[in-house]
Structure prediction request, 674 residues.
Amino acid sequence: MKLSTIILTAASAFTFLLCSCRKESDDILSGNIYTTDGYYNMMNSYPRSYEEMFRTLWVGMNCNYAAWDIETVDWDSVYHVCLPVVRSWDEDIVCGRDTVGTDVMKAFFTEMFSGIRDGHFRVKIWDMIRDVSFSVSPSADRLMQRPDYHSAALWFNEKEYYREILKDSTVAVSDSVSPSVCSSLKKYSDQGFFSSPVQMAVSPDEHMCVMTGVIGGTIPYMRFSSFEFCTSFIQEQSLPKNRRNVSSAYQSWFKNIQHMTFDNSLDGVIVDVRGNSGGLVDDFRYIVGSLVTDSVIEVGKYRRKDGLGRLDFGPAVPMRLPCRNTVHYSVVNRPIVILTDCNSGSMAEITAYCSMLKDNIFTVGECTYGATSMLDNSYEATYSGSFGDREHGPYFVYLPSGLFIPSVGPLLEGTGVEPDFHVPFNQAQFNSTLQDNQLETAVSLIKSGLMD
Amino acid sequence: MKRRIIFFLAILASLGAAAQLRIGGFDGVSLNRYVIDTQYQYDWRYGKTLSVYQGFSLQYDFCDWMGLRTDICPYAEKGYWKYRTGAFDKFSYDIDNRYFQVPVFAVFSFGGTRLRGHFGAGAFGAYWLFSSRHGTVEDPVDPAVSVDFSEDMVFDDTRDRRLEAGMAAVTGIGYRFSGNVVVQLEGSIYHGLTSTTKDYMLISDPRYNTLTTVQVCVYYCF
Prediction:
């Protein structure tokens, strides 16, 4: 054999090896594949089996969830354990047996997702065979196991009741607030606890209610059910001035702070986010952002998912929350108290977290919910976060697109913000005497000067 | 069997008679291509990055047409440019991956006494020294705003495979000046066969580097 032939053969073999020795990727389907109106709808159909649905749900979580590095759950093991169960459901259906009820399915998915730490995470699943849906939320399940758990419904609910209760009260503007809370505030108001009538307001879309007042003439107080001031203000612009209830309630709180700061009569400010489930990050400018001198507050970093790999993460970029950009007096030498409870979630927690960044901000109450990452509808931008179809199934996964990394202290996801002054809510006392021990403690702490 | 051993030793002895050691350095440019299957995330792009490629080289010639060569490249750049197109073109960043790379080639040469061509094939091993990235992304609070970032990447033992291995090839021409100095112009390719990520998921999602270099080598022949 000639040398040239040998060299040619060796070169060919080498080239062949170059081309063939790399492993191919598995085919990875998007978890968003079954959306009926989404941009990424490739199949425009529903899964043909429980196994198919399970696989896409599992892969969707694998690729979209942005905090796998803080999880202890072995997601591959979940697949191996769950797949045979799901296959048995399909076999039952093929054989004409209907042994798996919706309750069994719910228990199965509850167990499957029980290890997910993210506080926002929840899954809605449609049982295609029985045409019923159910939701699974590991964080809600964990919340109910907490010793300090009490229902958020205690605070904002049952709007028909309070209308009746508040009819003849000193409360100025009424709308949907919990009867207990309203009764409590009415009692405080009647006792002269509030030095001016408490204003209550509900946003035009009824998603948010606000209560404001002044305690003892020196402590402006505001309680609100969610962070939706931005949208409420926009919605109210189309209404007559006398029906702009949220704007009016908010302005009374803010103006009181301004006046009291100006004439040096302010003892402190209370922002009550108990039962507040969070909302728009832009609202930061209207709450803490209106009380500080900063133009922005960098609360930490935000790291999105970035890639198909479970541990592919994007850069951690500063998360800067905008503050009020108009001239205003800021509260610098007086305490700002954030009242929190176990139902304070998301933006309510970010607000409470500011107590770790500012010397004059304190948290009083209970440890918060533990859902601090953002949902920014960025599936198209980063292929991460929520996926599935919210309305038509077969599943919808509510999921943040990234992970909030606080600039001070440990991660808050799944654990929440520990208050500076831990005051468990005395529900029995509240139910019997309408006495709010957390609010009273906050007021006494401000009055005592311990926070100065 | 004895005859074969004697024959083999005789060949080695004859090669040794023409043996020559050469030591040198090289300087050039490298172009890395990051090979990844983007699957349904089809509008993410992975562009090539151009960088400097420098190092030392050691070659032992068994005879005038065959030698064994090893290079030491202490800082091989195997980065890439990751970016989005269209509405999400705010997302754009350069990933800088530095490797300590050592290829070993069997080199064959041909031609005259001064001007000679050469080609070689072999394998390489590389160790991922560090990784960093910089660029712009969408602001997490205000999507209308871009945010610049620059950060060192922390290696994750679960995810990252810091040892890389693959096949290597080189070809070029060289000119021998004044007896002992040889200058070579050459191109080489380093084809990674190990994924930069470990097989840590049930889903297989390997990523590979392909480094192409063009460099000038200057050798001193002993």
Remarks:
- Confidence is low (pLDDT under 50) at residues 11-17 of chain B.
- The longest helix of chain B spans residues 2-17.
